[in-house]
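thought: fold this chain, then report.
action: predict
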Amino acid sequence: MIRVLLADDQALIRAGFRALLEHTDGIAVVGEATDGEQAVSLAATTRADVVLMDIRMPGVDGLEATRRIAASEDLAGVRVLILTTFESDHYVYEAIRSGASGFVVKDTEPGDLIQAVRIVARGDALLSPGITRRLIADIAAKGRPDAGATAYRTDRLTDRESEVLALVGRGQSNDEIAGGLFLSPLTVKTHVSRIMHKLAARDRAQLVIVAYETGLVTVGGPEAAPPGLPESA
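observation:
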């Protein structure tokens, strides 16, 4: 059973998501939070697997709440799925760096929302092509390298791992990477898992950031196609 915590200051939106999720096999809504501080507290007390988190809330917003959840050892198994209006949000890039595992727009189709919750709950990252284009644009606007880039110890990676990381950043799935490098998908999955461990990355979403910020993938280059499908490590 996937335990979901809803965090949004609008009661109508929470009610709509609750009605949808509670009528889905294998998913249970275990709590509702009206601000980020309450979301962090309830994530612990309800033992939530996924927090469906709005960015814009009074007091502690969703961005700060995501950062606190990602930084807490006690909440290491909690995944944050950000709710966004996309066109008006300017926090997509920072939210992923803070530990969010994916994004869904508030007017997403019901089936897509349910799939997103399941994807994030199993530890995968979910980045739609549109969200990833925004992420890449933000990286480009910030310039590279930045202060955070030096924190990524890519020197710990083998040549093969660096090659795989670049392909992850280019949006390729494990199967696509395997085909291009003449490896088995299982071998690629092992490489990705080792890369995540060496770089202390929570999920594949953060690997995309590392690939761009460290220059393994060039922003705006022909290889910078945004990843569209979620992929397990």
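thought: worth noting. Residues 144-150, 222-231 have pLDDT under 50 and may be disordered.
final: tokens above.
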